[in-house]
Every structure is written in structure tokens, then in C-alpha cells.
Sequence to fold (248 residues):
Amino acid sequence: MTDDSPRHDASRALDSTRIPAHVGIIMDGNGRWAQARGLSRSAGHRAGVENLRPVLEAAGEFGIRFLTLYAFSTENWSRPAAEVRALLLLAQSVIDRELDGLAQRGVRLRHLGRREGLEQALLRRLDAAEERTRDNDALTLNIAFNYGGRAEIVDASRLLVRDGVPAHEITEELISSRLATAGQPDLDLVIRTAGEMRLSNFMIWQAAYAEYYSTSTLWPDFGRDDLLLALQAYQSRRRRFGGLDQVS
Ligand code: IPE
Ligand code: IPE
Ligand code: MG
Fold:
């Protein structure tokens, strides 16, 4: 799963016909980044937020159409209250600071995750950002905040029941249509920073056939060249979807 090998060279060109349509990033390692510098975990999260703009610009440059960033999981509420508070406040301030620029660059913003538990001040900003950017289509940016893959599947199941769909009519397509990502392509590539090799409840439905890439780089240090290396690794993989390689 790791692909930090020197075979990948940041100056090597990408095949523009094989750019993953949908990339997810599990932005991990803010705490370790801060600890290594003798800083507070919240300072690590601030550094992580500073990193969003360059990574988004690089995603646009490489032609990625859908990008999902895992920012706060349904399990992250179990962290110390002060850290949770810092993360919630950071989310508000980053929307305030970045929305104009994102809207101008044609980015469509979407919130994935449960609304319950989030404060009105943040929900208002998320709603306003979605509304303002709804007609943009250069890049769709999903912010997974208060997000859990299992919770999302539970919510989709509830919607199917609410809509009166009979059991024998339930299909994979119908479940997909009730997820927060309805209408979007499944994940092609999941990148996780900070060396961990697990999904931590990230898009467990949409990542069924995604390629996985783990890098030891901590999220605040992850930049354009790291994204390029991940895309090169992706392009070196053979995706079989359960079938066999084509023999030419
Ligand atoms: C990722 O960094 C950010 C969130 C989970 C919100 P961490 O805070 O998990 O950083 P580490 O894993 O402790 O280094
Ligand atoms: C996953 O990271 C969640 C986000 C990046 C938002 P965690 O740091 O919470 O994951 P675990 O606890 O190491 O699995
Ligand atoms: Mg972590």
C-alpha cells in the first residue's frame, strides 16, 4: 500500500488521460507535526489548514474533478474538548477566509457528514458556501466534517425506508443515490498521510474499489509534489475490478 519508493520522480509527467476522477485524502498527522516542534496539537491543526490552499491548487492543476477531504470524523468527538473546540472554530474561519477564492476559481463546495452536533454558526457557513458555489463545476470539493462512513450508510438506509422503497427493489445504485455523494463518481484513489494504513471510517462504500496510497509525510508538510507522487503511483497500478488483466 505504501508507495514512497524512489521509482517515482516528481518531474515525470502524468498521463492526462488517466487522472483519477475522484480523490479522497485522509489528512492525518497534524498532532505529530506539532509534537515534533514542541507545539500544541491545535497549532498542528492550524498548520494543516494552511496547507489546504496549495493542495487544492495542485488538484486543479492536475485535473482532478472531485476531491474529498476528511477533516473531522464522527469518532473525533472523543478527543479532549479543547481540541474539538479548536477544530470546530478552525472550520468556521477557513470557510470565511477561503470561500471567495474558491468560488472565483470555479470550485463547488459540498459538506459530507451529519449536521447533528454541529453549531448553527458552522452550519450556516456550510449552507451558504454550498448555495453560493452550486453552479460551479471546475472542481467539486467535498468537506467530510462530522463524517463517518457507517453513519452515512445508516442515513441512506433511513432515507430508503422513508421513501417507501420495498426491500426487493433495493439495489447498489439506489443506496448510492441516497448517500451524500449521490451523482458523484466513486473514489478512484484514497491518499492517507502520516503513514497510517487504515480507512478510519472514511467513505467505506465509495472506496470499495479505490486504490490506496499511504505516505509517511505528515499532512502539514504534504504539498504539490506529494500529490504528484500519489498520482504517479496510481497510474502505475492495474485496476481489475474483480476481472482479469486484458492480454494484448
Ligand atoms: C488529523 O491529524 C486531523 C484530524 C483527525 C482532525 P491528527 O490530529 O489525527 O494527528 P495525529 O494523528 O495525532 O498526528
Ligand atoms: C482520521 O484520522 C480522521 C481524519 C483525518 C479526520 P484519525 O487520526 O482520527 O484516525 P485514527 O484514530 O488514527 O484511526
Ligand atoms: Mg491521527
